[in-house]
Write a structure and sequence with these properties.
238 residues; alpha/beta; three-stranded antiparallel β-sheet; 10 helices; 36% helix
């Protein structure tokens, strides 16, 4: 089922585009990795999908009945987030805030959902621990649990492995892939890690000021854009 489609979308600031003519469609269960040079507009596109910014032009459509408030979002982590004074469980549960509406408390079902995602991400044992006492990799798992609590099957991840050591980075990417394959979560991820993008994603979106490429990993690998950006020659193996 088609979950999301963009047609000739341009994104930017104050009406000035930084990335233009972006068109693609995703089905439920796809895993899209967004790549491009610094300043190409990757994070701006993510904020546009979240309605935090309006598109400069073009059309963005979600499946009928899908609410943008049901997108799980893991932004780039800041120093302020790393020092957030709350327990692991409280941080994860806060992903359910949009569901609460005018209710001043969380429901039993929401608390069970938070526990479920913490367990799925192998951090339930830390639920009573202070979030700021965790390692960087553990904190990212908590924030991922928070995003999953907010999500209705779609998560947007902006550089989720930034600043993590190589082993923790590999574990994070494999965890995200397992969520995609085993839990059916649709993933849109910004990354500078081209090797991980080629290994884990099903689709690639490369954006630049001059335009955009969208296709499967195999299509991208053999495209002019892919060959240029990856620095490969025709016929090379990935």
């Amino acid at each position: 089922m088609e979950l999301l489609s963009l047609k000739n979308v341009s994104v930017g600031y104050d009406g000035k585009a930084v990335a233009e003519n972006i068109s693609f469609s995703l089905n439920s269960g796809d895993y899209l990795c967004i790549i491009g040079e610094n300043g190409a507009g990757k994070s701006t596109l993510m904020k546009t999908l979240l309605s935090l910014k309006a598109p400069v032009s073009g059309e963005i459509r979600f499946a009928d009945g899908f609410l943008k408030t049901q997108i799980g979002y893991l932004p780039q982590q800041t120093d302020v987030q790393k020092d957030f004074p709350a327990t692991v469980f409280e941080v994860a549960l806060s992903g359910c805030l949009n569901e609460c509406g005018l209710r001043p408390f969380y429901s039993k079902a929401q608390k069970e959902k938070a526990k479920m995602w913490l367990e799925r991400l192998d951090i339930l044992q830390y639920r009573k621990r202070s979030y700021r006492a965790l390692s960087g990799g553990q904190q990212q798992r908590v924030l991922l649990a928070r995003a999953l609590c907010a999500a209705n099957g779609l998560i947007l991840l902006d550089e989720p492995a930034a600043g993590l050591d190589p082993i923790v980075t590999k574990n994070m990417y494999e965890l995200i892939k397992s969520l995609n394959e085993e839990s059916g979560v649709t993933v849109i991820m910004v990354s500078h890690d081209l090797a991980a993008a080629m290994k884990y994603a099903s689709h690639i979106l490369q954006i630049s000021r001059s335009g955009a490429f969208f296709g499967t990993v195999s299509e991208y690998r053999n495209s002019a854009e892919g060959l240029s950006f990856l620095g490969k020659e025709v016929g090379d193996d990935a």
